[in-house]
Design goal:
Blueprint: E1 21-36, E2 41-46, E3 51-56, E4 60-65, E5 71-76, E6 82-86, E7 91-95, E8 101-105, E9 107-108, E10 111-112, E11 119-121, E12 127-131, E13 153-157, E14 165-166, E15 176-181, E16 187-192, E17 195-201, E18 207-214, E19 231-233, E20 239-243, E21 246-250, E22 256-260, E23 268-272, E24 278-291
Length: 309
């Protein structure tokens, strides 16, 4: 690959001469990248391969754990704990730095969750996650079994833990997937099948005033080109979403700025590196990185000195 074919509207976000660098390959379907800003390491998952991997600049890619209950979306917490959505156990688990395992979320109103897919944290310590039923399909990314819930929702674990809270109406989503906050945490973006929605975050943590800000991002009629999946927000408030044919970048108001072409169908992405300008992207069988001109928006797990004046 020699440079990128980019819309001029993206040139302030990513240099057209930038290239994707291959960091690892040989996975079945890589997903769930999470950056540990204190140890400078990337964690990611191979869902069908049932394995958790680590990448560092010094050692490259190393196997961390296998099997790992087919981990999917993940995020670090400020204390270094890793939150992981597990397809097999239908739960959000917390893995402490010492290896201790906790389960912040596995049921709602006495019924098991479907299969938590992606997860983010709020600066107040609460946890938000999507709960489609993909992990219950009889395919390689999960274990075939019946659902107990009759809807696919978005949930919140309150600060400090407690009963899981449904933060949208039960019929709001068909299959909620990737999610991310705006830099000020007043808006949450969530993709659903082929569409992207935005919600205002209420004082009680619920999501209100839902609106569709972009449609037709998927490959329902074009197999093998990707569907809306992982999402992150940059420091300017732009939303970067893996979807059909590449990484779609939206302005905060939902206007499409352009699409970054990718070497393979991409599943998820996260910023990391010394200046949080390195975008790590899990792309089906491989892990890549590319440098951007913009960095991640501030997140709870980033080192405080990242954002010092």
């Amino acid at each position: 690959m020699t440079g990128l074919q980019l819309s001029e509207r993206l040139h302030h976000l990513i240099d057209p001469s930038a290239e994707f660098e291959l960091l690892g390959e040989g996975y079945v379907f890589s997903e769930g990248p999470a950056w540990n800003d204190h140890t400078a390491e990337l964690i990611f998952h191979d869902i069908p391969g049932d394995a958790r991997w680590r990448w560092t600049e010094a050692r490259g890619v190393e196997l961390v754990e296998s099997p790992d209950f087919k981990g999917n979306g993940a995020v670090f917490e400020p204390d270094g704990s890793l939150l992981v959505c597990e397809q097999v156990t239908s739960s959000v688990v917390r893995i402490r730095p010492d290896g201790a395992r906790e389960i912040p979320a596995f049921h709602f109103e006495g019924k098991y969750l479907n299969s938590p897919n992606d997860v983010v944290t709020h600066s107040d310590g609460s946890i938000y996650f999507t709960d489609p039923n993909y992990g219950r399909w009889p395919v390689a990314v999960g274990v075939g079994r019946e659902c107990e819930l009759d809807f696919q929702g978005v949930f919140r674990v309150p600060p400090g833990g407690g009963p899981v809270q449904l933060v949208v109406e039960r019929d709001e989503f068909e299959q909620p997937n990737g999610l991310c906050f705006s830099p000020d945490e007043r808006v949450m973006y969530i993709n659903d099948r082929t569409n992207l929605k935005a919600f205002d975050v209420a004082d009680d943590g619920s999501l209100v005033n839902g609106r569709t800000i972009h449609e037709d991002m998927g490959s329902v009629d074009i197999p093998g080109t990707g569907n809306p999946d992982g999402m992150k927000t940059d420091e300017l408030g732009n939303v970067w979403c893996t979807a059909r044919d590449g990484i779609w970048i939206f302005a905060p108001d939902g206007a499409l700025l352009g699409i970054v072409p990718v070497p393979e169908v991409s599943g998820n992405l996260v910023w990391g590196g010394p200046e949080l300008r390195t975008l790590f992207v899990t792309m089906t069988t491989s892990l890549y990185r590319i440098e951007t001109l913009v960095r991640s928006c501030p997140l709870p797990y980033h080192r405080p000195d990242r954002w010092a004046a």
